[in-house]
Amino acid sequence: MTVRVWDPLLRLFHWGLVGAVAVAWLSSEEGQPLHQAAGYVAAGLIAFRLLWGFIGPRYARFAQFIHGPAAVAGYLGAMLRGRERRYLGHNPAGAVMIVALLLSLSGTIFTGWLMAEPNRLAMLPTLPAAVSPAFAEEHESGSRGAVGAVSVKDLHGALADLTLLLVALHLVGVAFASLRHNENLARAMVTGRKRAPDPDDVS
Ligand code: HEM
Ligand code: HEM
């Protein structure tokens, strides 16, 4: 028997985000209009997700799956002993990864937006120095805006790399949890359905 866990909009959000981030990555070297458009699509999807985390159905709500450090540590400890329980929604470790992915993506998009127009950097005159004082010193001959544009570009690239690393860990986590509980979690993110919970499971 299976039960509905992920609602259609949450699934659309997930696979839409995968597509938008993939296009942003693949177009980062050339094709700025496409690159920026993909980034804005990702931004819109993240904005939707933040709202959905408060008003969406049960398993979409942040309050349902975001736990404190003690619960996360407890879950990781149980994982090391091979005794972690099955969660019908996101498990506590997966939830940390979800928050990390959303933050890292938001930072990537914000820094991309900042450097796409020089006057956006000028609106935040103190940011470039705060972001990279060492870099600003190294390039003190340039104007402030130009220094900022270079360092924000580095930051944008670094955040994009961090996002890619987190995505790789996310996939390892999905594969691991799928094996441990004998279910295809990627397929569940497509169909929205998962095996009905056992009495021992957290639902
Ligand atoms: C750019 C790549 C990706 C990003 C940014 C990403 C991001 C996310 C986010 C934010 C969530 C939370 C879903 C929510 O409640 O809103 C999630 C969950 C999930 N993702 Fe991804 N994802 C990516 C790629 C993938 C891929 C390629 C797969 C499949 C192989 C996948 C499988 C899953 C699954 C199964 C879940 C639910 C995990 C669970 O059961 O708790 N993701 N992902
Ligand atoms: C999912 C979101 C995004 C990802 C993964 C991403 C990724 C990247 C990467 C990897 C680079 C190359 C960095 C480097 O050469 O050091 C780049 C460059 C750039 N990105 Fe993004 N980006 C995203 C969103 C955005 C957005 C929303 C904007 C602007 C509105 C933007 C504007 C730019 C610009 C202007 C460059 C510099 C191109 C150049 O001068 O070579 N990006 N991005």
Describe, in short, the structure shown.
About 70% of the residues lie in helices and about 5% in strands. It is an all-alpha fold and about 200 residues long.
Please explain how this structure is put together.
- The chain is elongated.
- Helix content is 71%, strand content 3%.
- The longest helix has 37 residues, at 144-180.
- It has helices at 8-26, 32-55, 62-65, 69-80, 92-116, 118-123, 127-131, 133-138, 144-180, 185-191; strands at residues 2-4, 193-195.
- The chain starts with a strand and ends in an 8-residue tail after the last strand.
- The chain has a two-stranded antiparallel ribbon.
- It is built from ten helices and two strands.
- The protein has one domain: Fumarate Reductase Cytochrome B subunit.
- The protein has 203 residues and is mainly alpha-helical.
- One protoporphyrin IX containing FE is lined by residues 21, 24-25, 28, 32, 35-36, 39-40, 42, 105, 108-109, 112-113, 115-116, 153, 156-157, 160, 163.
- One protoporphyrin IX containing FE binds next to helix 1, helix 2, helix 5 and helix 9.
